[in-house]
Amino acid sequence: MPKKFIKRYMPDHRTIRDHRHLRFFGTLLHDPNLFHLNRRSASGAFAVGLFVAFLPLPLQMLIAAAAAILVRVNLPISVTLVWITNPLTMPPMFYFAYLVGTWILGSPVHLEQNSFELSYEWGKHELAVIWQPFLLGCLVSGAASALLGYLSVRMLWRVHLVRYYQKRKLQRRLREVAHDRRQ
Asked: Is the pLDDT at 179 greater than 70, yes or no?
């Protein structure tokens, strides 16, 4: 992976430790593994961040931070990935999760045309109808995206390392050939 590129944009670990919203984690933020960037911490952070992104809960960043601390993976990456769900992407992601849930449960998709009304009563009624497939779909989609993200980062990291070592080996051979020609 482009480790130097990622490290350039990662915040300093002291900044995160001293952040006022994360102070309640106390000395847990002093674990150096939370800020290391290696194959294990990056792939685990992708899994945590992508799973939490599909949870239909408020305070996803704090949940991702707590999960990253618990499993000791890169904290900045896992918290940053939660921003995949933002006001623009949330409706299609959660609708997809709902469709996945209805498919798994074998229940029909609940769509009432022209029944949208932005009110508490409407939201309460609709959520009462769709909550089971929606939550199941969120959990399954989160788990699937976490697994896919984890495996993708592991694979890309390995491909990068193999290419790096092949390039290094080729450069060493070229230096040896150039050295032999000079003698």
From this structure: yes
